[in-house]
Amino acid sequence: MLLLLLIVHAGGHGVQYTATASGGGTAFRFADGAAQWTVWQLCDSGLPTGGFAHSGGLEAAAAQGIVRAKHTGSLLRFVRGALANAASLQLPLLREARRARTLEAWLEVDSVAHACITAEAARRASLAQGAGLLRAAQAMFPLGEECGAIIIEFRALVRRGGSAAFSEAGGGGRDQATSEGKSGGSGTEKSRTSKKKAGAASALVTARGHHAPAFGVVCGALGIEENEAARAFMFLVARDVLSAATRHVVLNRPAGGG
Model pTM? Predict the structure, then answer.
């Protein structure tokens, strides 16, 4: 009622899904095919990512009187703000990670997420959801050899609390530093050149696994188009806030819900 109305209708080429924002806005359609079902799986409340453990700031807003019990207008304003915040901060990270094809590229986006998400509670929630998503995706979906290997390596780095180096100039920072160190020859000039090139690739980035970049990488591995991935992520943001609103009795519970 408040945010998304999902309409199922029979099209000329099978079932299509149309989502429209309440109060107007541009409608969008998922393309037919297996990708749409994968999107619904990623959005399923049963997927064990821990999304319902974090209120997205709603609990604090309710405590401050910004969101008031059974006052849907204040809740709607809060949800719109949460979506605007996610669109400005999380979606750019998701899109960059969706295009990532190397571990280094993912690590770089992940490090930006860690720097930008400064509130401790939001950081913990993002890390917990990212870890849950990667764990579930690896167990449930055919990620493909290349992307699957990157996710396995990334998760291993997170578990070890490890870091990896990437070149600020782009492209194979770790390999560049290693190859320069192994190259033959002698002399002060060559040694200085080697150290300079190795230094350019010595930026260490810790693997953490924030939710938005992880969601982007998983969607890329599953062949989900970038805009569809972004819409799905925004749906998750709205869903989790509204779920928190129900738990905190900001919204009326459904009949029979206790």
Answer: 0.71
